[in-house]
Amino acid sequence: MQGSVSRNVPSGVSASGQRPEDALKTASAAAGLWSTSILLNGQVIYQAFESFTSDGLEFLNNNGSPVEGNVCFGVWSASSRGAVQVRHPSWSYDMNGNLIGTVVITEQITFDAGGNVFKGSVTVASFDLNGNVSGPELQAAVVGKRITAN
């Protein structure tokens, strides 16, 4: 096939190096509702309710002002056993409610063995309406605790 890349991947292993059964375990660990906190130098600077669906969607409702747009959507995928990567685009507004660009939040998180806690890193990048970087990139830690019905 023209333009295709041949990869030597063992049978039963995805191109990311993850076995299908491990991807299912990771999806099971991720799916649900989470209380998420962003920490900068050990201090909580941001909190959210974050939900991961088993089919790769992420929904987030943060403690920011609704004027700034505090409900967002993203996608996630298993990146390795027990870990996921999240890509979360969002619109960005000024204090008067005018659209000024986008923000892209990326997370790399790993679930504990019980599937009730995660930790990892988060990066927040800001762009103007032309797609140019519009501010410094924020890098912080992220932690989450599963919210259950009981």
Count of individual beta strands: 8
As a percent range, the share of strand residues is: over 45%
Derived structural class: mainly beta
- In round numbers, the mean pLDDT is 83
H/E order of the elements? HEEEEEEEE
**Helical stretch tally:** 1
The CA-CA distance between the termini, in Å, is: 53 Å
Helix amount: under 10%
Main sheet properties = 8 strands, antiparallel, barrel
Low-confidence residue ranges = 1-18
Neighbour order of strands in the largest sheet: 1-2-3-4-5-6-7-8
Assembly level: single chain
Shape: globular
Alpha-carbon Rg, integer: 17 Å
What does this structure look like?
The protein is mainly beta and 150 residues long. Helices cover 7% and strands 54% of the residues. The protein is built from one helix and eight strands; from the N terminus they run αββββββββ. The protein has one helix at residues 20-30; strands at 32-40, 43-52, 57-62, 71-80, 83-93, 99-111, 117-128, 138-147. Strands 1-2-3-4-5-6-7-8 form an eight-stranded antiparallel barrel. Strand 6 (99-111) and strand 7 (117-128) form a beta hairpin. The protein is globular. The protein starts with 19 loop residues before the first helix and ends with a strand.
Q: What is the topology?
A:
Elements: H1 20-30, E1 32-40, E2 43-52, E3 57-62, E4 71-80, E5 83-93, E6 99-111, E7 117-128, E8 138-147
Antiparallel strand pairs: 1-2, 1-8, 2-3, 3-4, 4-5, 5-6, 6-7, 7-8
